[in-house]
Amino acid sequence: MTADLFGADVADVPVIEPSPAPILAGTAERNGRELNGSLKSFPDLGADEGAAADSASPHSFGDVPDVPAVHLNNGAGSSGTAGGTAGVPGVPALADLIEAATAGDGGDTEETAVPSVPEENRPCFKVYDGWTLLDTGRKLRPGVWLHGMSKPKKEEMPVPVDSWVCGPLHIEAQTFDGTENNFGRLLRFKNTAGRWRSWAMPMELLKGDGSDLRGELLAMGLELDPFARQTLARYLQERTPKKRIRCALQVGWCGDVFVLPDAVIGPNAAGVIFQSGERSHDEHGQAGTLDGWQTEIASRAVANPLFLLALSAAFAGPLLKRTNTEGGGLHFVGDSSTGKTTILEAACSVWGGPGYRRSWRATANGMEGAAALFNDCLLALDEISECDPREVGAIVYSLGNGRGKQRASRTGAARSVTRWQAFIVSTGERTIGTTMMEGGHRTKAGQAVRLLDIPAARRFGCFDELHGMASGTALSDAIKRAATQHHGRAGRAFLERLTHDERDMAVRLESLKALTEFNPPEAEGQDKRAASRFAMLALAGELATEYGITGWPEGAALDAAVIGFQAWRSMRGGGNDERRQILDKLAGFLERHGDSRFSDWTADGAAIRDRAGWWKPDDTGGRLYLFNAEGLREALRGFDFKRALDVLEAAGAIPKANAEGERSRLERIGGRRMRVYPVFGDALREVGNGA
């Protein structure tokens, strides 16, 4: 009796509740089941594939407050249990005790009895959104019920059996991506807090015993019968819904709409939904108001170029695809406690709260998963010192290219590669190159232009204007507090305007790239590539201002981008980065080994260990180093040898190639003719060492 009071979900206790027998195809029971329109757990959403969506927006996935109770679909319940409990003087009936014990849960109990499911229509599934009284006197708890028939023994007759499967769970539509893969089900269910929520469930979660699916549903608050594991999977696959919705597996652009984990923004948002096998997508949270964000954060970026540059970078992610631009970003470098993390958190507030920011403390493989979460958005990475220096180079290339590592499946076939496109904002006390050198790697030019080093050294750390604050620390603290109170609004407001803006953003970007500020006279290929990234920041910031998101004066974002470009060039130096590295490396080799691995060309008998060559006076009184082939290749290790010789010739550090294209020369050393590579030491030092 006590167990019934607290655990039973019906007013009458059946004699037995065995699992229903399988119904064979072609039998009357199977035919009756196929004709039964109540197999679906929701009303018909329209057989016409092109029918418009109903008034409930299919892209709202959060808890829906104040959802009215949904009445019973196509009948309910079954008979076949005991008719009641014998009355005992002075003792209330069991049904009355259950009703009293569940009074708090049955506030929406339907007092009018509904017909039970006829035997010819069994087995079938039905969903009851509230407590339901059957015409047999039995009361069903809210949820999905399997109305079946018992499996008789010997001469016994089968009797109706009703089994509770889970809480109220409706199957609203089927989902699949643009390639007609990654099928799923759009589910709407009530959690144990009494709130309705939706989830696009990948069908692949039904593989095996379905434990992954059950774990996700339990975590989202749906009650499940622990003994109905296979029954739940059977219900979810019982009948394919007629309504179809395209699903997106990543945050970002899907056609002309932009998909976030809890919303789809754009003119055709009703036909797209975000589908994921995981419930946790709290990066894009919201709090506060857009006005509060403008007042407490955006307004304080005025007259602070680095701060304004970071906020502009937050709006740049959605523009990458619209302008056909590669990913990449900025790396703010400076001493500790200068405000680098503060402006990073402010940039994160455009899209989400404290959980949006990521750390550099990850492997290259782990960073792939993080980048995929922020596709077409901002990827914020804090403190590069936490990353293994040996991993930094691979991570920078991977993030900039937008492609993960190619991996093999269990059968050896190539698996699909993870792809993304994001604008990156990073911070650290060391540059990308310094961090990589600590791990024993040389920075390649491609890495240097994918993540641009920006010195965070202004008047007050990262700031020039304190906006009435007593110090840079006070301003930093105020911005951090505001970022926790107002976040996630600006990015969505930007998308609302951008998704309806049909102008050619690539043309606007080209007009900014053509400005003289981004085309200094001595600029080369890598300078222009970096200038394009700053032009993108100018476009993003000015567009956000035009949309009324930031409240900045017109031209403020462009001025900040120009200042950022100049700061990058001042830190890096002009010209081609790879050429400068080649010259610096060869000059450094001569400084380290000029007297220990080279000897006077007339002293052929001198004992030199690991000889790299000889030297002789040149016409200006300096030294002309005569490298042997092995010595020069060692000095230029890490660079393509022919490419390095081209750079040295262009810089005037070696003689021009002869008619046959050879750069080595025959020299008589100690009475022998030897082929060597002449290098002008003084000329090399003049163009090397960062000049």
From TrEMBL:
InterPro entries: DUF927, P-loop_NTPase. Residues 48-57 have a biased composition (Low complexity). Residues 35-84 are annotated as: Disordered. Residues 141-418 form the DUF927 domain. SUPFAM superfamilies: P-loop containing nucleoside triphosphate hydrolases. This is DUF927 domain-containing protein.
